[in-house]
Amino acid sequence: MSLPVMPFSRLTAFSLPSAPASMQTKGNGRGLVGWLTLPVAILAAALVYSHPSAAAESSQVKTGHSIASLITASDTVGANSPLHIALRLQLQNGWHTYWQNPGDAGDPPAITINADGALQGSTQTIQWPVPQRIRDSSLMSYAYTGDVILPLELPLQSADQKSDKVNIMAHASWLVCEHVCVPEEADLALTLDKGPPAPSAQATLFEQTSQRTAVPSPYAATFSSNGILQLTGKDLSPSSVSDAWFMPEQQGKIAEAAEQKTIIRNGSVTLHLKPTTNFSALRSLSGIVVLKDKAGTERALQIHASLGTLTDPAENTLAASAGFVQQMLFAFIGGLILNLMPCVFPILAMKALAITRLGHAARREQILSAACYAVGVIGSFTLLGATMMAARLTGSAAGWGFQFQSPLFVGMICWLLFAMALNLLGVFAFSAVSLNSSPHTRHHLWNDILTGVLAVVVASPCTAPFMGVAIAGALSGPPIAGLTIFAALGLGLALPYLLIATFPSCARILPRPGAWMVYLRQFLAFPLLASCVWLLWVATLEGGASIVVLLGSGMVLLGLAAWVYGLAQTHQNTLSDRKRFALHGLALLALLGALSLLPVLRQQAAAPSSAQGMTLPEGVEAFSTARLQTLHASGKGVFVDMTAAWCITCLVNERVALDVPEVREAFKTQNVSLLRGDWTAHDAAITAFLRQHGRDGVPFYLFIPANGAPITLPQVLTPGLVIKTISSTR
């Protein structure tokens, strides 16, 4: 423990007795007495100058990885003027503590200071210096290293008129991290004399810290709900600013580790941030913008940006945007591949029958059928995209497949697929409102539109290759561009049907309609019934076991309604109007009985405590940002699997490429941990992690090696691909 540093004036004001000349004469008792006073004087001086009232730094407290103390900018303190005081943390080499926003992980220091005696006051507000940015793989921290000074202003007012001492007491807590993180704390005390303020030996530390503190920005700051932050000012130009970055005061509003694309023009600096949860609900944005010039000098500016509309020609000119064209292409290819994804299999029953019927129909009917199917697909994708954008604007963290995170929605889709299966089995026939003069044509056209809608509804929880980047771009860009990207996604899904209708030669190779179609129609009802079982399982994970009773009861009532309605259709020519009306009424009552369960389902959906979550196999850990950071800091590679029970592609990947013996053995051999994030129900941490890596849905796979850059894997996995990826960095 080091002694407090004393001002030079105090040292010179205290004189020690010198040895008199007579002491040099042997036997001189008076000289001996004089020399005996020397140790007494030294001891007295030590006692005087070690007293807290003369110190501008408290006694130091040594913790596991730091030395903590209180320091003040003056040795004395006057009434009715704030005292500049600071928590000083001298950290071990390689260790760091955090800013008020720690970033992706960590916790900021906290301190409570109270003063009594001649003067009294209290404070907890730290005046934060500008932190360093510390990147660790895919995570970003805002932190301090070395000798850390965290200043505060302690307001003081007169209290005890009889005392001339001010007693200052503080309790501080902080987190220090290297490869592991350790919480530390200390109780600190300091006593100062009341009097005119005089600079202390630690005053230079305050001056140095003030130079590392952000100053109020002289520039107007505006941000948009999609993550664009802009500073405007006459002296901003490419010649005065070469780089810039933003550190928000609030944690979790942007993807901290994501690249902040910077556009510097004459009169403005524009930063493209990657928003996360609830960013669109912000009405103001505070933080530090650091401007760096060509010489490497940095200016830290404290900004308070207001919400506004920003016009950026590079973002609004769609034709000139290479990024937009790429996202359009990715969306189209992703929609095309979506036809082959397992999540679309349940609706292949209707498509197969429609395509077979289309092969030998009239040309006009072929084109109308394909066009109506395409309208259903493209319109549904566009509507889904608009819904997600609207949800973002209201502050919701909606991602791709968000609707399947609701047990109510899952239950309604389960009922819908069950009704479709009954239709395919011939329990009842679908009748639609007239579209034109031909009942036969209007029946098929409505079926085609409905097939397109159902294709999107069932396919929406899945993410095909190329879709992830396209959807993330659609949701973060201008609304018109986003809706166009969603329309391109729908066009890709509808394209095979459109090609068959456009080129008759393709349609002629299809088999002729016949009796076999009836059996195929009935057989293909069973994939829909299997989908109902899957959706019941998903609903159970989200809403608890009791939800099975509600959904099962609804299916019984729907089955009754379909059967009674089918009887009325089958015997409509032999039944009297009264009996036919009674059957229709009974079918309607059964249908209304099923619908009456929806409010109860909604209440069940609002009870997350009953949710069970997906069961993790042996050797797989639940995802959390803290666990990810701990594993990576310990020198292990980490494979992140973001999944959901309603994502069939996710489940297939786990069964064939992740939870298989050869891959599990490779994880063990390569010292790689597997973290699985369950996004079945809404999880804000997983949503933020997905947004941080430019994704808005699952599946998402990320391998973070012990050393090296993270590797993003495609949405469809094979055992060989996984083993090759985790072995490539060894």
UniProtKB/TrEMBL annotation:
Membrane topology annotation: Multi-pass membrane protein
Transmembrane segment boundaries: 328-349, 370-389, 409-433, 445-474, 480-506, 518-539, 545-568, 580-601
Primary location recorded for the protein, binned into one broad class: membrane
One cellular-component annotation, GO: plasma membrane
Thioredoxin domain ranges (all copies): 601-730
Gene Ontology molecular-function annotations: protein-disulfide reductase activity
A Pfam family of this chain: DsbD_N
Coiled-coil region: none
Entry annotated with the keyword Membrane: yes
An individual GO BP term: cell redox homeostasis
Keyword Transmembrane helix applies: yes
Record's subcellular location: Cell membrane
Protein name from the UniProt record: Cytochrome C biogenesis protein
Species annotation: Acetobacter ascendens
